[in-house]
Amino acid sequence: MTSTSSETRPFRIADLGTLVVMAWSGEAPDGDMPYLLAYSLGDGEGGPEASAVAVEQLLTNTGLPVGGDIVDGSTRPSLPVSLLVESGSAVVTMPQLNAQCTPPPEWLTAVAERGFAYLVFTTRPWPEAQPGKPIEPEALAAFAGADETLTAAAHVILPARSLR
Predict the structure, then answer these.
(1) Which helix (H) or strand (E) holds 62?
(2) Are 39 and 129 in contact (CB under 8 A)?
(3) For 140-149, what is each residue's pLDDT tens digit?
(4) Quick check: is 123 in a domain?
(5) Residue 26: φ, ψ to 5°
(6) Please, is 100 exposed, middle or buried when counting C-beta atoms within 10 Å of its C-beta (0-12, 13-18, 19+)?
(7) Three-state SS for 29?
(8) How many whole angstroms separate alpha carbon 50 and alpha carbon 158?
(9) CA distances from 33 to 59, 107, 110, 130 (A)
(10) How many folded domains does the chain comprise?
(11) Full residue range of the structural domain in which residue 67 is found
């Protein structure tokens, strides 16, 4: 007889696989909005399913609800997630990881004007969007705007900090 365990699997950083952060800006009624999309390639030790579970555990352990309301980091000073924008780079820091990307100039302008970026950290793997390979705007829009991506994500308003 086979039985299944309902125990929660312990968080293993190796299951995350390669984490990627991508920056882009999009038009909004009150000016460009700076977005950050964080996702796994799904290449962790346990494959795409284990990567999705590991990302969800990471987000939950950090106090970021997956599929829930937007978390406004400006009203939660103890939120263990931060955004540093310095020397043309964006660095997202959270417990157990740092992720850095080089945003386009229009993103840097938008984040300077708004003082924050909108982070979408999804549990949905995107193996096709590997670092260093160009992503077509249509592919980004299709993935980032898909219900499967958005409902499997934590949504966070991250105040932009600098070293100055």
Answers:
(1) none
(2) yes
(3) 999 999 999 9
(4) yes
(5) -130, 150
(6) exposed
(7) coil
(8) 27
(9) 23, 8, 6, 24
(10) 1
(11) 14-161
Domain for residue 29, yes or no? yes
Structural contact between residues 65 and 11, judged by C-beta atoms closer than 8 angstroms:
no
Query: In angstroms, rounded to a whole number, what is the distance separating the alpha carbons of residues 64 and 82?
Result: 13
pLDDT computed for residue 9 by the predictor: 62
Kindly tell me if the per-residue pLDDT of 157 is higher than 90: yes
Quick one: 131 exposed, middle or buried, by C-beta within 10 A (0-12, 13-18, 19+)? exposed
Residue 4 inside a domain? The answer is: no
Question: For residue 32, is it within any domain?
Answer: yes
Which pLDDT tens digit goes with each residue over 43-81?
A: 998 999 999 999 999 999 999 999 989 999 999 989 999
- State residue 13's pLDDT score: 82
Q: Do 16 and 54 contact (CB within 8 A), yes or no?
A: yes
What does the DSSP 8-state code read for residue 88?
A: T
Tokens of 102: 């080089």
Residues 74 and 161: their CA atoms lie apart, in Å, by: 11
